[in-house]
Amino acid sequence: MTYYNKPSNMSNKDKIKPRGRPKASGFRKLSKSVTVKFSKPDYDRLCLRSRQANRTLAEYIRDSTFNAQIVAKHSPEEASTMRNLVGMANNLNQLTKLSHQAGINRTKNILMELLEKLKAIMNEYKSSERRLL
């Protein structure tokens, strides 16, 4: 322990204790920073939320970062399945329009094939969802 302002004629009992706050341990010391940009409306919302939580902006961001639940983005397989579903939905709309123009009998077989594909994709999605849980 280092002592300050100790005259040479003072005994060990009369030692002056250091002033100020003790240094933080290396574990708790905040030494790294991260830059994040926000739009003006998002920044205002963030400031409002931090005030409502009665925390400084830095404390609020730190707390919300470590207490947040992260939802992963879709995997490439899921994105491909969604694109297929969107394409099939487009085909279904076109077939509906054709059915109104030409009659349901002309588009019945195509509609049944499309419905079977949709059922297969939905069953595949449900089974992969169960494996994740």
Automatic annotation (TrEMBL):
It comes from the Bacteria. Keywords: Coiled coil. Residues 1-28 are annotated as: Disordered. InterPro entries: NikA-like (IPR053842). Residues 1-11 have a biased composition (Polar residues). It holds the Pfam family NikA-like. Residues 104-131 form a coiled coil. The keyword Coiled coil applies. This is Plasmid mobilization relaxosome protein MobC. It comes from Bacteroides acidifaciens. The gene is mobC.
